[in-house]
UniProtKB/TrEMBL annotation:
Catalyzed chemical reaction(s): 5-(methylsulfanyl)-alpha-D-ribose 1-phosphate = 5-(methylsulfanyl)-D-ribulose 1-phosphate
Protein name: Methylthioribose-1-phosphate isomerase
Listed Gene3D superfamilies: translation initiation factor eif-2b, domain 1, Translation initiation factor eif-2b, domain 2
UniProt keyword annotation of Ribosomal protein present: no
UniProt cross-references to NCBIfam families, sorted A to Z: eIF-2B_rel, PRK05720.1, salvage_mtnA
Positions marked as site (Transition state stabilizer): C163
The EC number(s) this enzyme carries: 5.3.1.23
Length: 366
């Protein structure tokens, strides 16, 4: 997507052909900084410290991390070490493990001398596949938006989203934002309510930044505003992303998603989840019971970072010294609260049978 008229993806291979460039998302929206990853450890740290974040981008970064590792040590033990280092970088988004399993399946059977080249080629494929998947999500989600638009001709369609499931969270286009960008491109009148998404503020800092750069009308709202807007008919539909969807259709996403789904249910607002198929975890049968929920540092809750009027980026404490805090990064929305799953293969019912019918090759792969 475009940043000040220049096309960017969130991650890419640098001109030297081997190092990896990525936008440092910790610095947005205050500064646009490119980071260079030159080792497997760099990739692991980038994921862990949220220089990159968002389930599909975490997967893509891990894939390149494996490629970087193969330059250093392509032996069987080097492969295992890289896998083991990267797979624990963050616990909730299943795209991380999915990408690493794909890489290992390509690399393990071949001669170590061929592994580095094969790893870059497979990582590039994973990256291109993400872009293609998101194009599919864009087209399928657009149909939903067009259906709503047909019911209120000439009026603005209001979409609520939570966290950042935009192009910064994927390689390009985004998942939840893909249909929004396409609708905007096609000239539909669309406006996005952007949940700020405490404590990391992915909505306020990233989604708003993206939408602004694309000229998509949007309004940032405090996280607790969605219910009020829905009660007053100010939200036509909600679209969120996800870090892992269980085989039963339960959806794990950024903390606070569940409360938005409850409010949507209570107010008859359609609640959709945009999801690329690598985000489905067929090995998990019950999302609430079995998806591991990341708990992050309390500093994310006690401290806030922003830019002062004179342009300095500063961090300040907003919680009294000594007050304990809790920082659960994700929650699980039960399938019964989800209207539909927008995938690259169509909009699916959030249940086991529909997911299995749409992605039979994933079931067969085990
Ligand atoms: O903690 P983050 O910023 O990695 O969490 C990101 C989200 O929760 C996104 O909504 C999710 O990964 C979907 S990204 C297309």
């Amino acid at each position: 997507m475009k940043v000040d008229g220049k096309h960017f993806r969130s991650i890419w291979r640098e001109r030297d052909g081997w190092s990896v460039g990525a936008i440092d998302q910790r610095r947005l929206p205050h500064e646009f900084v490119i980071a260079k990853l030159t080792s497997c450890e760099d990739a692991a740290v980038a994921i862990r410290d949220m220089l990159v974040r968002g389930a599909p981008l975490i997967g893509a970064t891990a894939a390149y991390g494996m490629a970087l590792a193969m330059r250093e040590d392509a032996s069987d033990s080097g492969l295992k070490r890289a896998y083991d280092t990267l797979v624990v970088a963050r616990p909730t988004a299943i795209n991380l493990k999915w990408a690493l399993d794909e890489m290992r399946a390509t690399l393990a059977p071949i001669d170590p001398l061929e592994r580095a080249e094969a790893a870059y080629a497979r990582a590039d494929e994973i990256v291109e596949q993400d872009v293609e998947i998101n194009r599919g999500i864009a087209g399928n989600g657009l149909k939903l938006i067009e259906t709503i638009a047909a019911k209120k001709p000439g009026e603005t369609i209001n979409v609520l989203t939570h966290c950042n499931a935009g192009w910064l969270a994927t390689v390009d286009w985004g998942t939840a934002t893909a249909p929004i960008y396409l609708a905007h491109e096609r000239g539909l009148k669309i406006h996005v309510w952007v949940d700020e998404t405490r404590p990391r503020n992915q909505g306020a800092s990233l989604t708003a930044w993206e939408l602004g750069h694309h000229g998509v009308p949007h309004t940032v709202i405090p996280d607790n505003t969605g219910g009020h807007l829905m009660q007053h008919g100010m939200v036509d539909l909600a679209i969120v992303g996800t870090d892992r969807v269980a085989a039963n259709g339960d959806v794990c996403n950024k903390i606070g998603t569940y409360l938005k789904a409850l409010a949507a249910h209570d107010n008859g607002v359609p609640f959709y989840v945009a999801l690329p198929s690598p985000t489905i975890d067929f090995a998990v049968n019950d999302g609430i019971r079995d998806i591991p929920i990341e708990q992050r540092s309390g500093i994310e809750v006690t401290d806030m970072t922003g830019r002062t009027a004179d342009g300095r980026v500063e961090t300040v404490r907003i919680v009294p010294e000594g007050s304990p805090v809790a920082n659960y990064a994700f929650d699980v929305t039960p399938a019964r609260l989800v209207t539909g799953l927008i995938t690259e293969r169509g909009v699916l019912k959030p249940d086991r049978a529909s997911l299995a019918a749409a992605f039979p090759e994933r079931i067969a792969a085990g």
